[in-house]
Each structure stands twice: as structure tokens, then as C-alpha cells.
């Protein structure tokens, strides 16, 4: 019985631990997520200030701006809770249907098996000129050039057809990342149709704050999927535990039947010792009285019972 019940006890304890761990993980995750969301506004303000200062320092170097924009993008990804080379990949090489190779800045894995592509190659040269220009006439000219620069990149990004790269595995839109909040705000205020026109080309323009909110949602989706997988595993183990318990019950019932059979056999054997004429106890005791040598004697109450049964 001990050998049968011990594995069952271990399984029950393992099951209880999994349930407790899953519950604790869920509470800890949501508490951490709430804290991170509360600090999101402050972090975005600080990030915008840092990016603005850095953009001023870049002095129109497009290549340096591009490298810096990719660094800001990766920083946002690191803050999102997603894990690099598991939930997202940076600068992966892919081959299109015509044989050419493309290098998306970031490819994000979604829980349903699809992909999300993020592109950060937006030139901010005109924006930097606008920020540092004091002459209002020239300032307005740089603003228009900044809007045109964003539009050109939308057109170029649309021509890449990233959404067809993964065919049915990819969502039919691409995220265009602008690393400075005010750069997008200025462009969208100057041309209120900018966002919608990009969206018509399956391109969604995002900034550090909106991208981070999107990534947090994706991270939450991954967490929910992991919890669902844990729930499925718990259900599977619970089913296996139930089957094992049912098997244990069958074994216990068989053991009980065997115990009953053993008791019945024991009763029959005892009857042969005590009951009826010429029972075994009375017979061996007669042998002793007839002179058989024996060092031990049967208990007196046993002999009397056998003699009584023999008389009957």
C-alpha cells in the first residue's frame, strides 16, 4: 500500500506546486506591469529629451541618425519585456520572391505564429535644421522638407512589400518608427493626412511611446499564452493523475478481494484444525498421549476446543 500511495502523493504535491507557482507568477507579472505602465510617461519624457538633444548634436549626419534611431528602437524593445532572439530579432536577412535580400530592422514574433516588422530608417536631417533655424521663413521651409522626408520614406517602405515577405505568417502592416515624439507631432500637425495615407499603404507610424505600448501589449499576449500553456499542462497532468488514481482504486479493490479470499481460506484452514471428528489438533494430541515424543505442548484452551468439536 505504501509503495502504491507514495507516487500518488508526490504527483499531488507536484500538481499543487504548479498551481501555486502559476498563480504567483500571474500576480507578480501584473503587479510589475502596472508599475511599468505608471512609469511609462516619465520614461518617455526623458527619452524624448535625450533624443532631442542627441538629434541636435548630430548636425544632419543621416548615417549617424540612422544608427542612433536603431539604438533607440532597440532600447524600447529592451524596455518592453520581450526577449531578444526569441520574441524579436534584429537585422535578420531574408530573401524575397524575386531573389533579392532584405534586412528588416526588427522582426517581432507574435503568439499566433505571425510576424511584425519595424523599420527605423527615417531621415531627421530636415527636422534638425528646423529645430536649430531661427529665421521663420527658412524654418517653415525645413518643416515642409521634414514632412516630405517622412512621406518619401513611407513611399519607399511601401515599395518593399515587407508584408508579403512572410506570406500568410505576417500581418499585413509594417511599423514605421520615428525615434522623436515631436518629430512625428510636427509632421502630422503640418499634414493631418500623413498618418491615414501611410495606413492606406499598410504602414503604421509609431513613436517610442506608442511603440512601447504596442510591445507591452504583445508581451502581455505572450504572458497570457504561457499561462494558457501552463493551464493546459496542469489539465493534462490532472487528467493523468485522475487516471492513475482510478488505477489505484482498481488495485485497492483487487487487494481487498484478495484479502477477503485470504480470510476465507484462513477460515477453512482453521476449521480443519478445530472442527469435526478427527480434527487435526485432536489427532496430533492423541499421538502425544500414545507416546509420541514432543518437547512442546499445545495450549490447553486449544486442546479443549478441539476435543469439544470432536465430540460434536
Alpha-carbon distance between the termini?
43 Å
Q: Describe the main β-sheet briefly.
A: 5 strands, mixed
Topology as H/E string?
A: HHHEEEEEHHEHHEHHH
Portion in beta strands: 5-15%
Q: Could you characterize the architecture of this molecule?
A:
The protein has about 300 residues and is α/β, with parallel strands linked by helices. Helices cover about 70% and strands about 10% of the residues. A 5-stranded mixed sheet has the order 1-4-5-6-7, with helices on both faces. Strands 2-3 form a two-stranded antiparallel sheet. Helix 5 crosses helix 6 (about 180-190).
Question: How is this fold's topology laid out?
Answer:
Elements: H1 2-38, H2 40-58, H3 62-80, E1 88-90, E2 94-95, E3 101-102, E4 106-109, E5 115-119, H4 125-132, H5 136-160, E6 174-177, H6 181-190, H7 194-200, E7 203-206, H8 208-274, H9 280-289, H10 300-311
Parallel strand pairs: 5-6, 6-7
Antiparallel strand pairs: 1-4, 2-3, 4-5
List keywords for this structure.
312 residues; alpha/beta; five-stranded mixed β-sheet; two-stranded antiparallel ribbon; 10 helices; 69% helix; rod-shaped
